[in-house]
Specification:
Layout lengths: L3 H7 L10 H7 L5 H14 L3 H7 L5 H11 L17 H4 L4 H16 L7 E6 L6 H14 L4 E5 L7 H4 L8 H5 L9 E3 L5 E4 L8 H6 L1 H10 L5 E5 L8 H9 L1 E7 L5 H13 L3 E8 L2
Parallel strand pairs: 1-5, 1-6, 2-4, 2-5, 6-7
Antiparallel strand pairs: 3-4
Helix pairs in contact: 3-4, 7-8
């Protein structure tokens, strides 16, 4: 028996034009047609919402309903263990945690202080390995995409790239290949599990990363991509390892400094700030990363 029309009729008219929770649970395999009949009966008897009735019957969990609601409002996230991404993508797996609330607060500040003024690109800079710039870039990119912003994350750390591991993209053509004219924008990978999120990996490790990033075509690349993306986040190598971050931040126009709690020293932050200023990049602010 096909219960889809019954489910459709039983739901609020506020959902008209969109798939209802009942239909989405049915299509995702969370409930069967027979389960749907039981839910509809309890829903009518106790004047419940479809999701509440399904939970009371033990057919689904609260997390299942949250995921369906997220899909209805174009705010997709993943259940722990779902997909092949790194568990460090907390914005994808734990979107309602205090940690991700802090990321959303940072997103709001950046929208007001940087991207809201028509800017598109921002470099993420750290002093030392382990300061969390890759972690910040990956998760900040997800929360921007959840806002509906067309978001691109670029791994501009051509020495010790990390972003491909977060999204399980493997070794593929990326930024270095584009800058060396060995690849084109088809190297950008759309991450279909999210609203509008794309990633450009670092690509093949070049022998001359500083020179490659200092060429004018990086600025041209960012300018061209700005016509297609609202937010472009560029991960950079630690300042301790190389001055590559200056070239990237200069071409992005601005930088956000990632500070590791109980580890990064104030004089290191001051040194990065001065180097960014010398490169002509605006320091948008600093964020303390406890990860």
């Amino acid at each position: 028996m096909d219960t889809s029309p019954i489910i459709e009729q039983s739901m609020s008219s506020a959902a008209r034009g969109n798939k209802t929770i009942g239909l989405m649970l049915l299509e995702s395999g969370k409930i069967s047609a027979q389960d749907a009949e039981r839910v509809l009966k309890l829903q009518k008897e106790q004047n419940l919402r479809f999701g509440e009735a399904a939970i009371r019957l033990g057919l689904v969990k609260e997390g299942d309903i949250q995921q369906i609601l997220a899909r209805q409002f174009d705010y997709p996230y993943l259940s722990p263990g779902e997909g092949s991404f790194s568990s460090d993508l907390v914005a994808a797996y734990y979107p309602f945690s205090p940690q991700v609330e802090s990321l959303r607060a940072l997103r709001s500040q950046l929208m007001l202080r940087w991207f809201g003024d028509g800017r598109h690109a921002l470099a993420l800079v750290g002093a030392n390995p382990g300061d969390g710039t890759s972690y910040l870039a990956a998760n900040l990119g997800i929360v921007f995409s959840q806002l509906g912003e067309r978001t691109l994350i670029i791994d501009a750390n051509l020495r010790t790239p990390q972003l491909h591991t977060f999204f399980n993209l493997g070794n593929r053509a990326g930024l270095s290949d584009i800058l060396a004219d060995r690849a084109d924008l088809s190297a950008v990978t759309r991450i279909s599990q999210f609203v509008d999120l794309s990633v450009l990996t670092a690509g093949a490790q070049p022998p001359n990363p500083a020179e490659l990033l200092s060429r004018g075509n990086l600025a041209d690349l960012i300018a061209g991509l700005s016509g297609h993306y609202d937010v472009i986040l560029l991960d950079t190598p630690p300042a301790e390892e190389a001055a590559d971050f200056q070239a990237v931040a200069s071409r992005a126009g601005g930088a956000l400094i990632s500070v590791r709690k109980n580890r990064t020293r104030l004089n290191e932050v001051a040194g990065i700030r001065d180097m960014l200023a010398a490169a002509g990049a605006e320091v948008v602010g600093a964020v303390v990363n406890a990860h």
